[in-house]
Amino acid sequence: MAKYILKRVGISIVTIFVLVSVVFFLARLMPGGPFNDPKLSATARENLSAYYGFDKPMFEQYLTYLGNLIHGNFGFSTKYPSRTVNDLLAGAFPYSADLGIRALCFAISFGLVFGIISALNRGNKIDLIFVIIAVFGTSVPDFIMGALLQHFFAIKWGLFPIAQYKGFSYTILPSIGLGFYTMASVSRIMRASMLEVVQQDYIKTARSKGISRFRVTWKHQIRNAIMPVVTILGPTVAAVLTGTFVIESLFAIPGMGKYYVESVQNNDYSLILGMTAFYGTFLVFCNMIVDILYGVIDPRVRIGGK
Amino acid sequence: MRKRKLIALCMAAVMTLSAAGCSTPSTSVEETQGAASETGEEAGGDTSGGTAANGEKIFRYSNTIDIATIDPNKSNAVADSTVCYHIFDGLYRNVQGTLQPAVAESYEVSDDGLVYTFTLRQDAKWSDGQTVTAHDFEYGMKRLCDPAAACPGSYLGAVLKNGAAVSAEEVPVDELGVKAIDDFTLEITLENPADYFVSMLSMAAFMPVRQDIVEQFGAEFGGGADKQVYNGPFVVTEYGEGKLVMKKNENYYDADKIKLDGVELLTVADKTTAVSMFDAGELDLAEVPSELAPQYEGQVLSYYSGANDYAALNHRNTYLANKNLRLAMNYAINREEYNLLAHNGLYEPNLRYVLPQVRGVEDEYGTEYPLEAFPLQGDMDKAKEYLDTALSDLGLSDPSEITFKLVVADTDDAKKEAEVVANQWQNNLGINIEINMVPYATKNSMLVPGSDDYDIIMSGWAPDYSDPYSYLELWYSTSRYNYLNYDSEAYDQYLDASKTTTGKERMDNLFNAEKTLLEDGALVPLQLREVQYMVSDRVQNLGAYFIGLNYDYMYADIVE
């Protein structure tokens, strides 16, 4: 097991290194620079470039950047000249993470329950209702979902606050808006997986042994059916916890989502790289956890391990 | 048995997470919002109106993006300078076009209009109790131009003697035309006489800056509420993710005239959300996106943002070098129809070049020097005439032989503008237009003299001071902005003459320059941008302006 984990960690570090390197050069290939206000004089641009070290040879900048990265230092943003990228991320991540955890809780608990109930009622009306919810959830994009929730529950009926993030009632609409898609996918995957498992021989064996229907469902069917859901959770956790542009902007939540768009629009090199490194590391870390969890849940996955 | 425990454990974990997630916000979120309760906005509680539960008068408005910095030298966006206008106090204050003394009590100008001597008041204090001195102004302006500080607004410092040379590292910072004679006397020397200089002094770039605080925080100066000191009507108590909170500065020498207890500036990226929050009484001011404006007719106010938009013609193009063709393109535009199609009729069609609201000699420039260079609905007969002359000049038989590449930023507004203009030219003149959309940043980087990357580029300008020269200086033949590649001896001469004259004579020169530009059809003026916004009835004395800030709430009051 230790060897397996060590291998996963090694692969993860290499992945992050490659990712950061590629993005470093890609960002600098984008047309225009970070200082593109047409009012800036050429000297002001040169002074700014020198201030941020962008006037040095590309490879030297790259080495400096890697050196800083090892110390966890992302440098100063060009859009927010008085703030470091670390400071920006440290301020915004708690909001995104808080929202993301709420959305995940909503998505996983409701998704699993819906999927299980749906599968157990295969073909009847209850199943149909849940399938419709799932199709709706996976096909309606979050900006429409968020806007609908906001329009009806906040603006029209006044049940929840319209925007901002400063108390429990503020968190409900954005959490549902953000988690709805995941909820629907979890429910679909769980349903399909449940239906596949139910045809396995070991279910028949269990039934023929006279075990109660409840115990078969709980102990054999759900336990085996949940694996595919765990698979999608890795990337989903990373994506949901590190901020989403649409929901955060719609509900005026000061999370990280805006930086994905803003940093690229402004050619804010430090922020682009900071976001990439942060998100990349988080994603790789989540995937690694899922891989390790796999090994824990299902020993067959532990290749070469004992 | 073990397996069952595992499942139970997993389920329990999920449920605990759910429960935890659904009870309270994470501590970190609460921590960063700790000061929120100070403004009376309890979590989950609704506040009605600008007056919070404890009777404080809080003015609440929003921006679509976070404030980039509260370092006045480095603030470059209008939203940031607006904050600086309210938290710092410069030498003079430009209150929506009216000058009023601020830290300076008075000033004298030398006969040649170059040397300004300001006498400072002695009771102006920083928020940490220190006295505001002439040295703080000297340091601020030197830092603005210092190449090592790399301030984006250093171009504004070019008005000072040696300003441009200091930025370019040609002369040392000490030779900048600003000097503290003693603690309360400041002498500023200009590069050229500039009647409008004093009106620029309430811009963020010219605010006093405390050297000891800059040295204490280094590059992070102005990166947080506690990484700055203030000498204006308000101080910042909270500056971070999603909001900036200001509180009345009780040490401000003119505090009696400040009615607000505080200001809360939220970041609300989605303008529709901001309008909904305004409707629900959560904001006192909201900008109205053009698609929502018809719904709020009667409630919506507007102000000129100062930006004029035009289709810039590149005179390096062989066809566009022809004046008759340029005039044909100007007469072929129906600006009334254009404004309806591109902006729901919400902007002001521009029939000249300079914003008429800038200051003239005594009154607004547009009142003193009215001009309608092109008819509102265009003039298709004249357009045809000029087109025919142009075709024979150029030796062409058919307008369809002409194809122009029109570059435009890929924003929704700009796309619509380009489509309408291209359509009018194609229909009314028969020339071909190829629209080329590029990212906003890329478009901006193309706006340099001598470029052949575009034939026509959709562009605009916002003034740095309330004077026609702010718009006209762009097209001086050797100007670093001259991306029209316009080269007119007459135009240059008028602008040169404006630098050595004053008062009405100077303004006449500027007006002649504007007329020359338009008679040459050097560019195709399209619109004056207006911002539509709504203000709560409870708010009084709120102003809007087009230079150095957008909203002026310094003297605003909230009345229930």
Task: Give an overview of the whole structure.
The complex is a heterodimer of chains A (306) and B (560). Chain A has 306 residues and is mainly alpha-helical. Chain A is built from 13 helices and no strands. Chain A has helices at residues 2-29, 42-52, 58-70, 85-120, 125-139, 142-156, 168-197, 201-208, 213-225, 227-241, 245-250, 257-265, 269-297. In chain A, helix 1 (2-29) packs antiparallel against helix 13, helix 4 packs antiparallel against helix 5 and helix 7 packs across helix 9. The longest helix of chain A is centred in the middle third of the chain and has 36 residues, at 85-120. The termini of chain A are close together. The mean pLDDT of chain A is 90. With 560 residues, chain B is α+β, with helices and mostly antiparallel strands. Chain B has two domains: 44-272 and 536-558, D-Maltodextrin-Binding Protein, domain 2; 304-530, Dipeptide-binding Protein, domain 3, CATH 3.10.105.10. Chain B has 16 helices and 21 strands. Chain B has helices at 2-23, 27-32, 78-87, 134-145, 163-167, 211-217, 271-279, 323-331, 335-343, 365-368, 380-394, 412-429, 440-446, 469-472, 489-500, 503-519, and strands at residues 58-63, 92-95, 98-101, 104-109, 115-120, 178-182, 185-189, 234-240, 243-248, 262-267, 285-287, 301-313, 348-349, 403-409, 432-438, 456-461, 523-535, 539-540, 543-544, 551-552, 557-558. In chain B, the strands form six sheets. In chain B, strands 11, 12, 13, 14, 15, 16 and 17 form a seven-stranded mixed β-sheet that branches. In chain B, helix 9 (335-343) runs antiparallel to helix 12 (412-429) and helix 15 runs antiparallel to helix 16 (503-519). The longest helix of chain B has 22 residues, at 2-23. Chain B starts with a helix and ends with a strand. In chain B, 51% of the residues are buried. Chains A and B meet through helix 2, helix 4, helix 6, helix 7 and helix 9 of A and helix 1, helix 2, helix 7 and helix 13 of B.
